[in-house]
């Protein structure tokens, strides 16, 4: 089982979010017990920005067992399709293409996505299995 993790879950944990840190920790632990956890380049970059030093970030990701996993061609094309549909449906630029990349990566290269942002992903990636960390 490969679980893609969304930035919001990692920020909950690393930022010790009062509302979601414990639930996100539990969800991460459960996902680790069931297989691998990966982060695409968007999640990797967004999370890395929280740390003052790259070495600290890399060490903590290794300790957690989160692996780097870049988008492949199929995921990039899926991103474009989803973004096109979003814009066709009248979507403004309140959602960035990066959000679509995270969803497409999880759909095409993983078995599921661990996130708190279930509404957006369910709308544009209906076949993606979502694990909602806030419900743990």
Topology:
Blueprint: E1 2-5, H1 7-14, H2 21-34, E2 36-39, H3 41-48, H4 54-64, E3 66-68, H5 73-88, H6 97-109, E4 112-115, H7 118-124, E5 130-132
Parallel strand pairs: 1-2, 1-4, 2-3, 4-5
Helix pairs in contact: 1-2, 5-6
Describe the fold and architecture.
The chain has 136 residues and is an alpha/beta fold. It has a single domain, classed as 5'-nuclease (Rossmann fold, 3-Layer(aba) Sandwich). It is 57% helix and 13% strand. It contains seven helices and five strands; from the N terminus they run βααβααβααβαβ. The chain has helices at residues 7-14, 21-34, 41-48, 54-64, 73-88, 97-109, 118-124, and strands spanning 2-5, 36-39, 66-68, 112-115, 130-132. Strands 3-2-1-4-5 form a five-stranded parallel beta sheet, with helices on both faces. The mean pLDDT is 92.
């Amino acid at each position: 089982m490969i679980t893609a993790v969304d930035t919001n879950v990692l920020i909950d944990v690393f930022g010790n979010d009062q509302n979601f840190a414990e639930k996100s920790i539990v969800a991460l632990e459960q996902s680790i017990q069931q297989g691998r956890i990966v982060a695409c380049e968007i999640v990797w970059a967004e999370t890395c920005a929280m740390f003052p030093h790259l070495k600290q970030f890399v060490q903590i990701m290794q300790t957690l067992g989160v692996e780097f996993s870049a988008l492949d061609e199929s995921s990039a094309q899926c991103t474009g399709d989803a973004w096109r549909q979003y814009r066709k449906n009248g979507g403004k630029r309140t959602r960035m293409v990066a959000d679509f990349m995270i969803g497409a990566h999880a759909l095409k290269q993983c078995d599921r996505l661990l996130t708190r942002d279930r509404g957006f992903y369910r709308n544009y990636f209906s076949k993606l299995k979502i694990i909602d960390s806030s419900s743990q």
